[in-house]
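Figure 6 in text form: structure in, sequence out.
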């Protein structure tokens, strides 16, 4: 197991500086709360809302964001837990169904981006955790809303190809850990989707 796989397996939610990671619409400040709601699988409406909030923020029109690869780590763990409970828990079943769809989308987006990376000779950052270096994070504090909006726009425009490609590369690296989990999905309605995702993981 290499350093990046060790990080994916061992990183804790409190190790991530969520309020300094950008998404399509907001900072990822509320993500730990959403993950907790989803993982407990107790209230169907609340789980649905939390999952929707995360997914719509970490992917938008095939664009991935700073928070995406880190969110994928915890979505993968939730997915693994939900697969084990889906036969007895309707909420777990719904989570598996939605994450299968989303994971397939992320894998497809990565393969499209991978071709660009090859053509442009772009490599990802060496280590997953490199994306948490101070120079890549959103400022801890902004004086006002206008200043924050200005930085956000500049941040998107000035994001290096290497950093941007890392969002896609490391999100996909998380998915490579899903092979054994997918093999445990025996539900007829979901097996086809699981097989389609499996084919994208190579």
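Output sequence:
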């Amino acid at each position: 197991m290499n350093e990046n796989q060790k990080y994916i397996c061992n990183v804790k939610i409190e190790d991530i500086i969520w309020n300094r990671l950008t998404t399509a619409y907001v900072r990822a400040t509320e993500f730990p709360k959403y993950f907790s709601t989803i993982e407990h699988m107790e209230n169907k409406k609340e789980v649905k809302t939390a999952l929707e909030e995360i997914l719509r923020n970490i992917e938008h029109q095939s664009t991935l964001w700073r928070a995406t690869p880190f969110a994928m780590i915890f979505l993968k763990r939730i997915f693994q837990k939900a697969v084990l409970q889906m036969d007895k828990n309707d909420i777990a079943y719904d989570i598996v169904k939605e994450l299968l769809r989303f994971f397939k989308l992320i894998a497809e987006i990565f393969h499209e981006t991978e071709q660009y990376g090859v053509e442009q000779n772009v490599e990802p950052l060496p280590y997953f955790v490199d994306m948490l270096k101070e120079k890549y994070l959103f400022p801890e504090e902004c004086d006002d809303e206008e200043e924050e909006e200005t930085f956000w726009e500049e941040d998107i425009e000035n994001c290096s190809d290497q950093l941007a490609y890392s969002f896609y590369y490391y999100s996909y690296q998380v998915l490579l850990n899903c092979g054994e989990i997918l093999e445990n999905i025996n539900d007829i309605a979901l097996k086809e989707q699981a097989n389609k995702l499996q084919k994208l993981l190579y």
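Caption detail: The chain has a mean pLDDT of 91.
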